[in-house]
Amino acid sequence: MINLHHPKSIGLLILISLFSTAIGFAQDNVLLKIVDIQSGEPIENVKARVKGYPGEYMTNHLGYLELKNLQQAGNTVTVSHGAYLSGQIAIPESTSKLVIQMERNYLNLGDIVVLDSPGIHLSQVRHTNRTELPLHLKYWVKEQSKINDIILQNLGETLQDLQLQVKFKSTRAGEIIDIQSTDTIVSQSDAFMTMMTQLQPFLSKINAEMGFDSYFTFNIGNQVLSNLWFQVDEEPMPPGGYYEYQKQLQKELIYPQAARDKKFEGRISVGFTVNTDGSLSDFDIVEPRGYGTSEEAIRLVKSLGNWAPGKIRGVPVKVRKFVAVNFRLANEVSDYDLKNWLQSRIYYPQEAIQNKIHGKIYLSFNYDFNSKAITDVKLHDDIGFGCGRTALNVFNQMPTKFLNDVTGKSGQYLLPVRFMFANTKSKEKGKVLPVKGASLLEEITVMGYPVDFNMKQNGFVVDVGFTSVRDLLEKYPRTRDLNFKDRNLLELDPKIGKLQQLKTLNLEGNFLSTIPKEIYDIKGLWELYLNDNEIDYLPEGISRLKQLYALGLGFNNFKSVPEEIWELNYLQVLDLRGLGLTELDSKIGGLKNLEVLVLDDNPISELPVEIFKLKKLRELHLVRTSFLSSEVELLKKKFKDVEIVFY
Question: What pLDDT digit, counting tens, does each position of 25-70 carry?
């Protein structure tokens, strides 16, 4: 018997026992048998690849496969199966037959906590910008209200003083077998077996999607369990609150000399765990950028001290958090001006975006040209929801040296700050300025993402309580604007194509992996928002949406921008945030009517020359891209009439 430990990076132990040997080097052909490490049963459809050799092998129903035409000893073979832990081994020198035992991969269905009042908390991983819910959790989450009832009805009283871990196998044939639990008495009870039987239809759906028998595990109890959480009742809080914390991050940042020499600018995301006592641990960098920035970002977060811990039902729990540290050289650029400084720092409050608040506010102040002193700063025409407060706070931190270039003399000045969305139309002609006699400075524009605002409010607007397309067809067949945002949708009914009056369809923040091609039957659709899903591809035919003028594809799993997008001649707003784009297709130049292009959160660092064919372009969003400030300044000179949003 030979025990080979799998490399630590994969974390799998594959045990090999030789049942036949040959003298000398490895044979040209090697027969493998792959079995379950616990039951010894053969595993069908295990994939095997040999390093340096083309093609893929697969085990038969008896668990056998034959590796052919191997030329040398020590060939590395990788074995994988959806229900087992994958791994690599080197084939021993003197064997023509061997057995590989694979460990089961128990898919975690989360922690189920029985609350004091009826209900169950299902822990799940959900990130702030991207929804990364594993396939095996999709249908479990979708049906969690039914699952709640099943578990409570059968085990509600039993679990008052018990925490139970359950492991089992679910077959495609509809059976639950090989049940293991931390309490054999409970797991052998009639109530437990009834619960498992009633859960099987949901598990069979997962098996059908995956295409193989699966192993599952979950924990149930009446107390908060000890897993690492991403969503909690009370979020962890940094010292001083988030606003003060972000200010401290920028204040305490020490720019690494290597990053300064390379003129590196960018955003570094630091991941860490907030422990139950508020201490921080397990630091890592989501996407390392080099030049000492990772080390500085971690040092910075550590230096600002402990957080208030996150809680569930008042009990502190471990929570995984992410903090962005911005590296900017903007303050050191000699030609940096007042407008750029303010626009890169005044942010659109989330509360204002959610409530669709837009408009113009004013800041008045007195300025002494010789002493560079600013006095009597006042806020006028505040539109609320944090807009005025945000602008005022940033203005009070501004280096006064910038004012000399735009004022030229001492006096009273008025600075307009406009908060707006992509298609906001100005209705301010003839408006009286709030301070008479003050010199008016150039307007500062703060942009909100267009996809959060362009919801037309005409006809029937369906927003609350509906996720069934069939219900809509029965009750509101003339629906014009449909908002299915953040509804945990795993799929969309193809009957959506029968809502022929639809103008706006918002599917943001769901778990969709694709969309039904029947959407393209809605010939008059104006706006389609698919942001923050798990879409790998779009069915052919989107070019049939001839009237589409706003399209949101951001934060999905596209390998590239779907080709047909470039045929949407009437497109005015295109959101491509967070798609991992390193370059933009030159066909972008064919979108002659494009007015707003959003490329935020992509590692893109240059644009094709065809971008300059977009004569109607008025907004270009390059936030958190790989562009440098100097490169953006060059773009601004070429795009004289285009508002470039960058920080």
Answer: 345 678 888 988 888 888 888 888 877 666 678 888 788 888 776 6
Tens digit of each residue's pLDDT (9 = 90 or more) over 71-127: 555 577 888 888 888 777 777 766 677 888 888 888 877 767 665 444 445 544 333
> Which whole-number Å values give the CA distances from 572 to 42, 279, 618, in the listed order?
57, 48, 10
Mean pLDDT of the chain, nearest integer = 77
Burial class (CB in 10 A: 0-12, 13-18, 19+), 353: middle
- 606, amino acid identity: E
Structure tokens at 107: 């898919």
pLDDT one-digit tens code per residue, 103-114: 888 887 776 766
CA 644/CA 586 separation, integer angstroms: 19
Query: Which residues sit opposite 114 in a β-bridge?
Result: 120
Neighbouring CB atoms inside 10 A of 444's CB total 23
Residue 144: enclosing H or E segment and its boundaries? helix 144-155
> In whole angstroms, how far apart are CA 395 and each of 348, 415, 433, 439, 503?
15, 10, 19, 17, 41
This prediction's pTM: 0.39
The 3-state secondary structure of 89-106, one letter per residue:
EECCCCEEEEEEEECECE
Q: Which tokens hold the place of 305?
A: 């001290």
Residue 431 has pLDDT above 90, yes or no: no
> Please, where are the H alpha helices in 384-512?
387-396, 401-407, 469-475
Percentages of the chain per state (helix, strand, coil), in multiples of 5:
25, 30, 45
**Residue closest to 434 by CA, chosen among 363, 357, 358, 342:** 363
- Residue 461's contacts (CB-CB under 8 Å, 6 or more residues apart) are 455, 479, 480, 481, 483
Joined together, the tokens standing for residue 416 give 């307009």
